[in-house]
Amino acid sequence: MTGCLSGNDAAYWCPEMSVEGCIMQVISLGNMLVEVMRVDLDVALDRPGTFIGPFPSGDTPIYIDTVARLGGHACGFIGVVGADDLGSCLLTRFERDGVDFNCGRVLSSHATGVAFVAYFSDGSRRFVFHSRHAASGQLSPEQVKPAYFSDCRWLHVTGCNLAASESSRLACLRAIELLPPGAVLSFDPNIRPEILSIAEIRDLCAPVISRANVILPSLNEAAMLTGLLDDGAGCSTWAAQGKTVVLKRGPFGCHVFDGSQAVDVPGFRVKEVDPTRAGDSFCAAITTARLEGLDWLQAARFANAVGALAVTAKGPMEGAPTRDEVVTFVARSNAS
Ligand code: ATP
Ligand code: MG
Questions:
Q1: Which of 210, 156, 197 is nearest to 30 (CA)?
Q2: What mean pLDDT is predicted for residues 132-159?
Q3: Among 50, 141, 160, 164, which has the minimal tally of Cβ within 10 Å of its Cβ?
């Protein structure tokens, strides 16, 4: 990764850089942004008020950083940041946690993406995104290089990156094409119906869902994407097509749909400080656990622990635990 970061503050991305020799086992790609959030509840974004941040963020950056923090697998991320302090906020976190960025780009022509977030006492959140026209919107299929995928064992793609821009969608599809036989494709719909119609969302997601081995929806997404009555029916339909589906259920944990079986895996009890992005950490933990040979129920329990720890810290990636922290947390929860 340091190859991309060496140099001064010019565009130090080197398009000719070779990725031969970068052996990545887990890869993801997409929108890189920082998050700046209100300190107090119920302060809308249309008035002056106090913010905290920037925090490194973006659904797939959180995912890959959490896989790296959990350890055991070489992780690579494909995305774009601006040559500015906010880009450095993201890249410094990747560097600290060991995420490779050799297929990434650092552009002096565009600023790093930002999301502003306000929280309300009824539990709702409101976002203002500056990303489509920011550096992150410049993600392109040319960055997705075959050599980078030669040893890939797991690729994670999300719906919001299929919707972000045409070039981002094409980058995701190219990554899927490059997956070696036997590698796992996981898909987290993570898509906002406010941005697109349901028909458009279904069209965007269909080719990825048909290829995915593992689908990791949040509440309402399986019903929305399949057009069926409820999440249970939607997840069972995907499971009948040979996919393993893990439905994320916030504090309640998750449901695993595998073959004809549907099993409830209860969540851990924690004090929730910041619920945003627990789902991305959860997906990361599923990847780590499955690559280590855990069965689906063990993997779901491990992911529930990582998701629970993620909500205990303010900031999207700040609760991403190390392996030791997960082990200690699970042992304490079992004892209490
Ligand atoms: P987001 O879109 O905010 O990233 P999500 O809606 O995709 O999240 P959630 O279901 O909110 O995903 O959270 C993912 C997982 O994290 C849950 O399945 C659960 O295991 C854990 N989790 C989330 N919130 C809590 C909580 N308050 N207490 C305990 N565990 C939680
Ligand atoms: Mg949630």
A1: 156
A2: 95
A3: 50
Query: Ligand 1 in contact with 43 (CB < 6 A)?
Result: no
Q: Write down the pLDDT at residue 16.
A: 42
What residues does each domain of the chain span?
26-321
Summarize the confidence of residues 122-146 as an average pLDDT: 92
- Quick: pLDDT tens for 244-301: 999 999 999 999 999 889 999 999 999 988 887 899 999 999 999 999 999 999 999 9
Tokens encoding 143: 């960055």
Number of H helices, E strands in the chain: 11, 15
Q: How many angstroms separate the CA atoms of 201 and 96, rounded? A: 35
Give the predicted TM-score (pTM) of the model: 0.93
Rounded Cα distance, 230 and 217, in Å: 12
* Contact status, residue 186 vs residue 157, Cβ threshold 8 Å: yes
Residue nearest to atom 12 of ligand 1 (CA): 279
The arrangement of secondary structure in 26-321, i.e. its CATH architecture, is: 3-Layer(aba) Sandwich (3.40)
- Which of 247, 248, 254, 270 is the best mutation target for the ligand 1 pocket, counting ligand atoms within 8 Å of the beta carbon and taking the most? 248
